[in-house]
């Protein structure tokens, strides 16, 4: 059964006019239920994450400032969010959703988090709509509990997974792979284990050729025991914050490549949703929904 993390806190309200499209966190599960891709049994509601798992990834001093709402105005601006207690609670529930999804993936082969993919959160700071790095927390959870010792992060958001790269820069058991827009945020890129920077206006053919060449090689060489998939749909040509030119069909084929390889190699995988900022909310929801539709088709 495809298990999906979702909680009402995912749709945490922000001041009117804020550019981050929180409504997708409500519309996506509604769409999946309406079309029959999933039923209510597929969803689970995560609880807040235990502090000890946050501290496997983030510096205590940063976590204390976040928890106690004592970030400086400059630090808050870097996150892109107005800081609040409910926002921090949202982040820890998202991270717990990814940890719980880890166990479902080990059981069923795949699990998903309607939110997450918070790859711009570093050990000591938040950036780019990310306060806690749910993918890194999930990977460190696997390492600490000895459920996996070789992990691959596949980050296909249009923005480089800079926080994840920084967190695991000295951790050989976690291989970070980021395929992203070369001229997009962040201005300063960290060094992933493998970065593929893409020129503006990269189309389906070039993108899919690179992915279908590099990803099978990574899996063959590194033989991961577990995969985290950052499945942002801001690679679409319609995206306001992206600079690539993928069509919805191309984005769907991207997901098919990832899911098929995980299934073929019997590698458990957790997907976190990541970014999506197209002008029409329907384009965002449909592209994200394709990731879930294909997971059902390929794994079940």
UniProtKB/TrEMBL annotation:
It comes from the Bacteria. GO terms for biological process: epigenetic regulation of gene expression. Keywords: Hydrolase. One of its GO terms (molecular function) is histone deacetylase activity. Pfam families: Hist_deacetyl. Residues 18-289 form the Histone deacetylase domain. InterPro entries: HDAC_classIV, HDACs, His_deacetylse_dom, His_deacetylse_dom_sf, Ureohydrolase_dom_sf. Belongs to the histone deacetylase family. This is Histone deacetylase. It comes from Xanthocytophaga agilis. The lineage of its organism: Bacteria, Pseudomonadati, Bacteroidota, Cytophagia, Cytophagales.
